[in-house]
Every structure is written in structure tokens, then in C-alpha cells.
Amino acid sequence: MIGKAARGLDRVSAALNTIAxxxxxxxxxxxxxxxxxxxxxxxxxxxPPIWTEEMARRAMVWxxxxxxxxxxxxxxxxxxxxxxxxxxxxxGGALAAIRALGVLIFVVPVLWYCLFGPNMSLSRGFLGRxxxxxxxxxxxxxxxxxxxxxxxxxxxxxxxxxxxxxxxTGQLPAPAxxxx
Length: 180
Hints:
By secondary structure, the chain is an all-alpha fold. It has helices spanning 2-43, 52-74, 89-115, 126-131, 143-146, 148-168.
């Protein structure tokens, strides 16, 4: 029963990861389009639009944040002791729990301050403050750009829970060996 729940959580993580990867690809395409149009308009048309640089910058944030969550899911994130991923059994479970604690120590405060500001005020949290602001050159509320941070960190939490569940139920596949 627990193993089935772990596999279900892993399927949810995989589905969200697929969406995140498509989002990252779309963001890279927007970034390339905006930067490319900037170059064409500046050097060929001598009339660069004011929005392209900011659009490229905002798309880069989304691409980077969604890409970071996908890298975490794939195990391609930087780790201090990569050989520890191969440890199985009780020792592997303990190491996975320690790693999860380290991730939580980083992720939970980021998500907390994305939502809450001083005195637990939603309006003074990172997202609340960006809701009332507009981008400098784009007439779009900043929350459409700043939401990349909590979305990516929430995805990392889902991926962490799935990986930990698989590890604890002994279903996590052995890491692939790579040539030095």
C-alpha cells in the first residue's frame, strides 16, 4: 500500500516535471525570440522596441527556475557527496532523510517569504508586493514574472517528496554510472 502511494507520488512528480520542462522550453523560445528581435530591430531597422530586453530577462527567470526544478528531479543538481546516492537500505534512507532536511531548510523559508511578509501579511510577501507593481517596459503585473520562484520551489518539494517516498520504500532505482 505504501509502495503504491510512493509510485503514485512519483507519477505526479513526473507529470509536473514534464509540464515544467515544456514551460522551460517555451520560456527559452520567448527569450531567444525577444533577444533576436532586439538585434534585428536595432541593427537592421534602427528602431529597437523597448520591451524586448525586459521580456528576454523575464523569460530567462522562468526558464532558469523551471529548469532548476527539472534538474532537481533528474538528480542533476549539485550535491556535496554524489556517491551517497548509491547507498541503499537503512543507511541510504538515513542519508536521503538528511538530504531532504537540507533541501527543506532552504526551500521552506523561500516559499514562506514568497507568501508572507511582516506580521504574516499576504500583501507584504514577495508575491503580494509584486501584485501591485507593473513591469517597467511591459504593461503586465510583476506577479506573472515573480511567480516563477514559488512555482519552482513548490515543484522541488513535490520532487523531493516523491524521491524520498521511493527511497524509503526501496523502490528508487540505482543511479546511472557515468564515465569520468
